[in-house]
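Re: flavin-adenine dinucleotide structure - here you go.
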Amino acid sequence: MTLNGSGQYESFDAIVIGGGPAGSSAAYKLASEGRSVLLLEKANFPRFHIGESMVPYLSRLLEMMGVSEKVQEAHFVRKSGVEFFATHNDDLRRQNFSNLAEGQSKRTYNLNRARFDKVLLDHARDTGAKVLQQADVKKILFDGERVAGVEYQYQGQRHEARAPYVVDASGRAGLISKHFNHRIMNHKLENVAVYQHFTDVVPENNPGVQGDVIFSSHKEGWLWGIPIEADVFSVGAVMPLSLLKQSNPKDMFKKHTDRAPRIKQAIEGATPTFENPKVELDFCYYTEQFAGPGYFMVGDAACFVDPLFSGGVFLSMTCGMKAAEAILDISKGKDEQEAYKHFDNFCKTGYDSYFRVVYAFYYEFDRDMNRMGLELPGGFRFVLQTFAGDFWADQDQPVMEYLRSKEEWATFKKPFDMVYDCPIYPDNHYRAADLANLTPVDDFLQSLPTDAKVEDKVLVGVGSRQSGIGSFGKNFSQGLINLFGFVK
Ligand SMILES: Cc1cc2nc3c(=O)[nH]c(=O)nc-3n(C[C@H](O)[C@H](O)[C@H](O)COP(=O)(O)OP(=O)(O)OC[C@H]3O[C@@H](n4cnc5c(N)ncnc54)[C@H](O)[C@@H]3O)c2cc1C
């Protein structure tokens, strides 16, 4: 296994570079089907990572990976909704995941990524993957034009491993993408994030529902407030790079946090963890080619989109699983080129869809999430479903159909075949065909007064509610209750 000119190497069915959510998902899937897989991770887990708010569709994905129980046992913060506050018009609303289609999980998580990523990595190892930490991949190895293995540094020595397939899940490092010069920066979204963690948070200071993400937008950007532990909040301000260049991260973070009254309230008296807020530059990039001879690229190694809708981890894991499925399909006789093509189409559909939702926020709805909920075609259920992770939506899903009609929002320049096949809820989701039976949009959107205290209670019982598409009683939106949130 040690190089030292001995020519020795270890062979596997697949090698995965990077043990973040994308890499662990790919390694888990391959190992679960009895394939030999080597996962090489540079860091020693648990390690810090930003990216903590999850979409609801993640819950089902965790079940599909058999890791749901382990995640539950780790007691991450459960999330049943998100509140959106637009400072320019004081419009506050709550998106309540209980309005998702029957059969879908109505809750997801906010994750302390250091702990979560370790749960996933351990799960891959427990399933049979060979996991090496503090194993730094230094070089991609080729057999002619084909990727054939890696060279890595581990315990002070160089090693070589070979496999017919290498999955690059190295995150922003993007080893294969950079090797081939495949990474393309997205100049439509030149934003940066400046963020901080706060400890000793007093839960009673939170003006909203415990567990909710507090989203706050203003004319120059937006902020996230994410409870990632009972007494820890992650706060981040996203803004144009050009704006940050006019000042410094510390001042900018304060200036922007001051514009988010509900986040400010939630972290009142709490202690910042980092001496200075951290900064994430190089925000959005993509690739025109997610796979090629002997390799697959997954997660941030391939593509990164503005974190606005919390889709990064979900997309990374879903594509990680798909890469593994492609490798398994090939081993069962599927044509290799076809497998690459399908994987490429799948990833492009997911990322293209997600980019479009992000563009809508910045370019059509003037950074107003509530207007998106009110004005996108099809009504609130489809908006909610889109935000929740419906990135491989049916062709006629109204929100995605509209967003996909915008030619100027296409991410990938080369034509590709869309994959209209939700890998998470193929059977349980709102369908355009049911639109006529659904209650009107305004049943779903009532503004919350900004001084209202939102209770962590589901006041079911006022109005009538049955389950299923189109079965919400008309009275349900009356009185103090609304389907977007619950107000005292
Ligand atoms: C500011 C910001 C906010 C975000 N907010 C959210 C959010 O709220 N919700 C959300 O879902 N997503 C969010 N994201 C995105 C999310 O963090 C990423 O999409 C996700 O972490 C990608 O997972 P990954 O496995 O592809 O990469 P990573 O999680 O980055 O994992 C890559 C791994 O590869 C390892 N590695 C790198 N180089 C090597 C090497 N040479 N050899 C071996 N190992 C190597 C690294 O150590 C790392 O552990 C956010 C991102 C940013 C920047």
